[in-house]
Structure formats: C-alpha cells, structure tokens
Amino acid sequence: MLFPRRFLTRLARVCLLIALAVPAIVHALPKASNVPGGIALIPLGPVSAQGKAPRAWLEDQPVLVSAESGQWFAVVGLALDLPTGTHDLHVGEGVEQKLLHFEVGSKRYPEQHITLKDKSKVNLSPTDEARAIAEIATIKELKRHWRDTDSTETDFALPAEGRLASRFGLRRFFNGEPRAPHAGLDVAVPRGTPIRTSARGKVLAVDDYFFNGKTVFVDHGNGLISMYCHLDRIDVQAGDPVSQGQRLGLSGMTGRASGPHLHWSVMLNGVMVDPELFLAANRNTR
Ligand SMILES: [Zn+2]
Fold it and tell me: What is the DSSP pairing of strand 39-46 with strand 85-91?
C-alpha cells in the first residue's frame, strides 16, 4: 500500500511526539554485580500483557522476579560466602521447570581494623554470648522472610545523608581478631539524625539486639528486606506500612558501635548484599 508523502511526514511527527511523551527508561532494578555480596540479574523473557511474573528459586529459597524495559529478571542476591563458579537458578514449576546457569566471579574486599575500648563487646561473657547466639538465630529467620507482593520497589534512597564510612564487604578485625565481614553500609551521622526507610514496605520487626542495638527491619516484598541498626530511638512498630523516606527513628550508637552511625543492611533471598547497588548513582552507570 502506498501513502502520500505528506501523510508519512505527519505520521513521523506523531511518532516523534509519542516517543517524546514516553518518559526515558528508568533503570529501577539494582546494579548487577556477579560477585559474592553482589546481585545477578538473570533475564527470564518478555513481559506479556496478562502474564504473571515467573517464579524462580536459588536452591530452596525463592528469588525476587521484577520487570524492567519489558523483560522479567530474576534479581538474585549472592551471599558473601557463595563459592565462585557456575550456579543454577530454578525457574518455573512442574513441566515448565528449567535450570538457568549463571557465573559468580571473585572479589577481594578491603580489610578494616577496629579498636573497641569496651572489651565486653569483643570477648563476650557466657551470658552475653548466649544472648547474642539466640539473637543471631532470630535475625536469620527474619532475613529469610518472604511476603508475596505484586511489585517490589528496588529504587532505594540513602536512609540518611552522611559520609559513607565503612563500606559493604570489609574484612573486619576487632582488636586484631578476625570477625565476620561487614555485611552492610555505615553512614556517619550524629546522634539524633532522622533515619528514613529506603523504599516503600512494611515494618517486619523492631528489637534491641546485643550487637545491632535498636534495629528496624523493613520488608519491601518478595524477599527484599532492609535493616537499620544502632538507633537511639525507634518510632515505628512491627506491621506498620511505610512509604519511601518515612522516618523510622533517630540515629545513635546502641549495641556494638564505636561511635554514632547508621548501619544499613539489605537482604535479598535471605542473604546480605551490597546496599550501594540499589542507589540511583550506581544504577545509572549500568
Ligand atoms: Zn556497620
């Protein structure tokens, strides 16, 4: 079929206007980083008009599946102690089930040496040790918590403005003794600074822990959870819905902290990942 040239010119103008009216593609998903402590983004096919998100698992743990630019992606949290090499993602159920392979490379995180004057928080008394062990078990359950939601906000804002002090993944030594790696991001803020939730969600738990001090867990849905530690005061309760930027409490140095700061952790499919991968400044470089 032939169209008059004038019609085609007009059509081109209309198409251009439509293209300009559609906002630029926003990279809402976190930045991919296929290393321990990072995130793998695994394409699962195009989003169809009525199709539901495919389901995916890493071993027995369900994994967040989210859409970007018309594609489904499994957004897979990679544990700091995950071995490098090839891993399997289980996708779909029954006859539809398939295995997708993905690679995890190595990353050598820097070392951090910390001197704590309060030795009771380094070499624990039997009572403190029993308390800390019980709390670690509770926190492990919270990390693996799963709540189905239609969508998950992965577009995170920094919970407080401040210097990024200790980064995620640092291999830590307390008074010369090797300890677990730093599984969060520390933001240096004076005591009493408002701490705001990084994204929309629901308060999963609040508690006062031996190591983490006064802590808030926010569940963003589908296995994405954020944790805010060492607070001086908590202003929310478990079950409260929260919107991005809503105040959770005030910063402090409760628990094991050498000074006032926010320790912010982000969990995906039950494992701690680098919170900075969720911040816009990093996503835009993808
Ligand atoms: Zn920290």
Answer: unpaired
pLDDT reported for residue 11:
52
pLDDT of residue 96: 81
Count H helices and E strands in the chain, helices first: 3, 20
Contact indicator for 72, 53 with CB cutoff of 8 Å: yes
Question: Are the CB atoms for 152 and 222 separated by under 8 Å?
Answer: yes
Query: What is the per-residue pLDDT for 257?
Result: 87
Residue-level pLDDT at 123: 77
Predicted TM-score of the model (pTM): 0.86
Q: Given this model, what pLDDT does residue 262 score?
A: 98
- Centre of ligand 1 to C-alpha 42, Å, is 29
For the record, the structure tokens of 53 come out as 């998100």
C-alpha torsion sign, points 180, 182, 184, 187: positive
H helices of 22-85, where? Answer: none
Predicted confidence at residue 247, as pLDDT, reads: 98
Count of Cβ atoms closer than 10 Å to residue 229 Cβ: 26
Ion ligand 1, residues whose Cβ is below 5 A away: 184, 186, 263
Q: List the beta bridge partners of residue 72.
A: 45, 67
pLDDT number for residue 24: 39
pLDDT less than 50: residues of the chain: 1, 14-27, 285-286
Distance between CA atoms of residues 15 and 136, nearest Å: 57
d(CA 170, CA 135): 22
Q: How far is CA 10 from the centre of its chain?
A: 47
Question: 147 C-alpha vs ligand 1 centroid, how far in Å?
Answer: 26
Distance 262 CA to ligand 1 centre (A): 7
Q: How far is CA 97 from the centre of its chain?
A: 27
